[in-house]
């Protein structure tokens, strides 16, 4: 409680009042409510209790009909007043039925003759539109319509006009930007009306459809990090346009987009590109942040634009970025943060319908599974409708190819299935995956979009922390090794994860399993190995890095590589650099050149996966039929894969002892970072700390 006297409408017939004991001793014998038309609703005290925080709680019943959208003033026996705030009432079934708005016309709809503004704000007493036209500030009242929608049509050409909403709800006015628009001013100060026909968007490029998510090779990158190092030939570093900029210098030094193209990955997964609150868009170099602080879900981040004051430009710049990637044969996945917002109190949807979009219980406590102080509630109809429409708009506008969901376990699996269904209607091979951690939120465990419920999400992928822990080693205890760093006794577990955790039925499809050993979170693999493989030489740690990358790229499932993982990226020993500056986060191309052996070997493995369907089995049945394991003294993993005529066997030796293995027929050696075998061999030598891959059926 902040005030000495507060009241909350939790249901259509229930009001909770909290009175401080410093406020008339927290006592009142009677209460009533009065609306803005001076109509009185009597209140009856149902219960009274003393709270530990110095307040008296009164549970009151309403002796009259409640009109949603009216502003009610509560009176106690001393004629002291407070506004009854709409609270848990917005979570009730009755509210959901009465205010379900199914049309997709919220926001500002522009034509040269008129612009129609619509917002959904059922609990608001009044909503106004403020805009600036010809240097004059104008404020007009919106008209309340059915289903809690407020509307206003302005019969003028408002193209390029700045606007915002003024919403009166729960007794106060709040300035609100338009949560339904894609066009924003710098730092979300205002929204902008834009004629969609004036957007200069590139023609969409149709890529050959993927047969399965297992055909993807995902590369996680940051718009800022890829080009923030000086002297790499990029004239617009840290920007959308700089991300895909190419010239003679970038080509000669293999930097920026030229480098990304050279890797051979199929998908680039971009860290958040939509408006986040932790960087000043006008002075973007003062602060650094990864961007997991959502402010506007449909507006791009202005710090990545050449001119954050130009609402159209950032749209065009990003659309061109996607187009450039598609032209290079690279698909684009976006990292979406639908689980929390930067500041709940400033969030536009919160100020239009307080509490509706956030997880809360009857006691008014808010869920904190995200550990950010607020968790989005995706279950109410208008909330899921908003996020579903957001996903569709992003695809339609930018032609992207996939979404990765941050802390997906806070969302509910029904929403994820709806998103998957709608996105695949637009693009059949669209990818949907996320962090399926079982977060401690108010969402019931049985409906969380977590790994525990993967069987209920047929087309939604999950990051495999199991793969990470087995191959890399403990994410929390840096000293604890994984198989690739020398813990050879993880033999049973490594067989399970190399088969996409499908043989032991942890997952029911390899297309759902995102295999990784490094991402933007936590220590890089190189920094982890500097601790758990302390005392080993740099050359040996390079071999460890190659082995881990090989296991990611050759395992069944979907491989995921963090930018720089292919050259031993370092965060200077820090585990979390989300706001640490470019110095810690930039892609270091000099370091890349220093560890070029890892790069070249990783590129070979990427190409090998693309050329051999046996490493991309798309069903459990294919894995059970085509994958077999053997070992050499329970130290070296022997991993055999077959699909049709494509039959390969891979050896992973994480020990300091070389081993030999006799094949039942001669095979072509496709990869051997120990350089120990001829091009064709039947007796395979597996050098210490090495990976060997052979293919059957190609010898003369």
Distance between the termini: 81 Å
> Could you give a short account of the major beta sheet?
8 strands, parallel, barrel
Continuous helix count: 17
Query: Structural class of the helices, strands and pairings?
Result: alpha/beta
- Helix proportion of residues, in percent? 10-25%
Protein described:
Belongs to the glycosyl hydrolase 13 family. Pfam families: Alpha-amylase (PF00128), CBM_48 (PF02922), PulA_N1 (PF17999). This is Type I pullulanase. InterPro entries: GH, GH13_cat_dom, Glyco_hydro_13_N, Ig-like_fold, Ig_E-set, PulA_N1, PulA_typeI. The chain has about 700 residues and is α/β, with parallel strands linked by helices. The radius of gyration is 29 Å and the shape is elongated. The strands form five sheets. Strands 17-18-19-20-21-22-23-24 form an eight-stranded parallel beta barrel, surrounded by four helices. The chain is built from 17 helices and 30 strands. A hairpin with a 4-residue loop joins strand 8 and strand 9 (about 115-120).
């Amino acid at each position: 409680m902040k005030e000495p006297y507060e009241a909350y409408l939790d249901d259509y017939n229930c009001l909770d009042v909290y009175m401080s004991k410093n406020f008339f001793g927290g006592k009142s014998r009677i209460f009533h409510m009065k609306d803005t038309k001076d109509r009185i609703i009597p209140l009856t005290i149902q219960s009274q209790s003393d709270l530990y925080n110095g307040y008296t709680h009164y549970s009151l019943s309403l002796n009259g009909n409640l009109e949603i959208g009216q502003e009610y003033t509560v009176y106690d026996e001393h004629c002291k007043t407070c506004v009854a705030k709409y609270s848990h009432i917005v979570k009730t079934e009755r509210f959901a039925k009465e205010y379900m708005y199914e049309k997709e016309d919220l926001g500002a709809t522009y034509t040269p003759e008129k612009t129609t503004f619509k917002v959904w704000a059922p609990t608001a007493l009044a909503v106004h539109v403020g805009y600036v036209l010809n240097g004059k500030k104008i404020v007009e009242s919106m008209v309340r319509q059915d289903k809690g929608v407020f509307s206003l049509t302005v019969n003028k050409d408002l193209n390029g006009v700045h606007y915002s909403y003024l919403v009166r709800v729960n007794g106060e006015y709040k300035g609100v930007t338009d949560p339904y628009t894609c066009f924003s001013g710098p730092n979300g100060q205002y929204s902008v009306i834009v004629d969609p026909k004036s957007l200069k968007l590139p023609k969409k490029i149709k890529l050959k459809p993927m047969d399965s998510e297992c055909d993807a090779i995902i590369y996680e990158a940051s718009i800022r990090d890829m080009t923030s190092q000086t002297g790499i030939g990029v004239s617009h570093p840290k920007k959308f346009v700089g991300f895909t900029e190419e010239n003679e210098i970038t080509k000669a030094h293999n930097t920026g987009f030229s480098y990304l193209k050279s890797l051979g990955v199929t998908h680039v997964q971009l860290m958040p590109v939509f408006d986040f609150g932790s960087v000043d868009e006008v002075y973007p170099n003062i602060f650094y942040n990864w961007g997991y602080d959502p402010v506007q879900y449909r507006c791009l981040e202005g710090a990545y634009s050449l001119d954050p004051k130009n609402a159209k430009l950032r749209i065009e710049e990003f659309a061109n970025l996607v187009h450039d990637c598609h032209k290079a044969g690279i698909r684009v996945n976006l990292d979406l943060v639908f689980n929390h917002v930067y500041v709940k109190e400033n969030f536009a949807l919160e100020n239009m319908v307080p509490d509706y979009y956030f997880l809360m219980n009857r006691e008014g406590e808010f869920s904190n599974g995200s550990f950010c102080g607020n968790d989005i509630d995706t279950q109410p109809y208008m909330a899921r409708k908003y996020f579903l429409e957001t996903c569709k708009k992003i695809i339609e506008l930018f032609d992207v190819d996939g979404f990765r969901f941050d802390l997906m376990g806070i969302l509910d699996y029904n929403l994820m299935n709806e998103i998957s269904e709608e996105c695949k209607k637009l693009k059949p091979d669209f990818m949907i995956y996320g962090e399926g951690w079982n977060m401690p939120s108010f969402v019931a465990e049985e409906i969380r979009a977590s790994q525990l419920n993967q069987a209920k999400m047929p087309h939604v992928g999950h990051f495999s922390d199991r793969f990470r822990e087995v191959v890399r080693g403990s994410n929390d205890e840096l000293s604890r090794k994984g198989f690739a760093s020398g813990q050879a006794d993880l033999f049973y577990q490594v067989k399970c994860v190399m088969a996409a955790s499908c043989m032991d039925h942890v997952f029911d499809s390899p297309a759902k399993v995102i295999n990784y050993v490094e991402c933007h979170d936590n220590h890089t693999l190189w920094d982890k190995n500097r601790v758990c493989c302390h005392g080993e030489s740099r050359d040996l740690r390079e071999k460890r890095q190659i082995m881990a990358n090989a296991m990611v790229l050759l395992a069944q499932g979907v491989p995921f590589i963090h930018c720089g993982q292919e050259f031993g990226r370092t965060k200077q020993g820090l585990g979390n650099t989300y706001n640490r500056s470019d110095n810690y986060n930039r892609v270091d191309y000099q370091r890349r050149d220093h560890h070029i052996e890892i790069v070249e070997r990783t590129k070979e493995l990427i190409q090998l996966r693309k050329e051999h369907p046996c490493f991309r089995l798309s069903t459990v049945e294919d894995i059970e039929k085509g994958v077999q394991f053997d070992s050499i003294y329970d130290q070296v993993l022997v991993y055999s894969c077959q699909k049709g005529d494509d039959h390969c066997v891979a050896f992973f030796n994480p020990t300091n002892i070389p081993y030999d293995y006799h094949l039942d027929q001669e095979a072509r050696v496709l990869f051997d970072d120990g350089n120990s075998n001829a091009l064709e061999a039947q007796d395979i030598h597996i050098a210490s700390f090495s990976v060997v891959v052979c293919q059957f059926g190609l010898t003369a």
